[in-house]
Structure formats: C-alpha cells, structure tokens
UniProtKB/TrEMBL annotation:
Protein name, per record: Large ribosomal subunit protein uL6 alpha-beta domain-containing protein
UniProt-listed Gene3D superfamilies: Ribosomal protein L6, alpha-beta domain
A single GO cellular-component term on record: ribonucleoprotein complex
Protein family per UniProt: Belongs to the universal ribosomal protein uL6 family.
Amino acid sequence: MKPRSRPSGDKIERKPWLCAGAGGGCAGKKLDMAAFSPSMRYPCLKSSFFGERSLICITSHHPASRVVFLSRPVQCKESRIGKKPIEVPSNVNVAMDGQDVRVKGPLGELSLTLPCEVRIEQEESGRLKLFRTLDTKRASKMHGLFRTLTDNMVVGVSKGFEKRLLLVGVGFRAVLEENDLVLSLGFSHPVRMAIPEGMQVKVFVQFWRKMI
C-alpha cells in the first residue's frame, strides 16, 4: 500500500494538547511539553500511511506527587565488643557514681564519664558489664567504644601496658641519660626524647651474629 500524499497547499494547524486527568478524559488544561524529554515534546506526528495525525493523550501529574517516601524500621545490632564482660582483678577497686566510673589499682587511678547512651553495672562476681539505653546506631557505637575504654582503665591500673622496640641497623643504638632516652638512628645528630612521668624505660643491649 502506498502512502497517500497531502497536497502541497494544505496547512497543518497545530493546536495545544490537553492533559487527561487521573479520572479519565481531558481535564481542560494545557500540557507543557517542555517539561518532558526531547523525544516526548512532539508526540503526535503525521502518519506516513493515512496522512492523519495520531492523537496521543499523555497523563501528567505534578512532579511532587511522584515522590514516594518509604520508611522501614532499622534494627541496630548489639555490639560484639560491648556485650563482653570486663574482668576486674582483686587488687582493683571500681567506684560508680551515675555515669562516672573511677578505677583505682596499684599503678594509679583513672576515671571516665559514660555518655547517656550507655550504662554500667557490676555483678556479684565483680565483673563489669555495659548496656545500651537506646536502640540507635550511635548507641551501638558508644557501647563498644566505652566498653574498650573501661577495660583499658582496668588493665592500666593493674598491670600497665608494655611496648617493645627493636632497633635494626648499622650503628643504631639507644642510651638512657637521666630522664632522657637518646637514640642514634643514622641522623647527623642524636634524637633525644624526654621520658614522661609515670613511664619506665629499659634498654637491653643485644649482639646479633649472622652465621654464614
């Protein structure tokens, strides 16, 4: 079938399109085609077979009506670190006053203030346990953080912390001079570090022999 050609003298009258409402039919409002993508700005084109315009009625709503907000409950999992109990040695005393925790041992005394999202309890066996007071993500983070800080206080006042440093290099050495630690690390000058109060530093000289 050959398409019918329109006479050259005919003119195509362009009329504004009407928008169909949600209830069907045309609502009588002009449709702003500029709001659509370029491919939808000219929806009605001349038919190549019948020489007629195919009418396309597009339903348009306000952009804000298309936005849908979905809400769902978020389940905050309990911190694996926060739920672990803290073992308290017999030579450590723990005093609690509300959100304030004070730990005293043979090496000193430390204190910590807990946030409102966390509470602490001491069992009959002497162990400490921390609990969340709120079911939020922040409370879950604070639960594990302050459990670790409380455990570090107990270890610090009872046994303390130890760090060993091994110097490997030609001419590298460490020497104690009164309250300073002097390090020779290959620079043009020795590195002198003051030892803070309450910290003990020991230097062990070892000679390594490489067997060939």
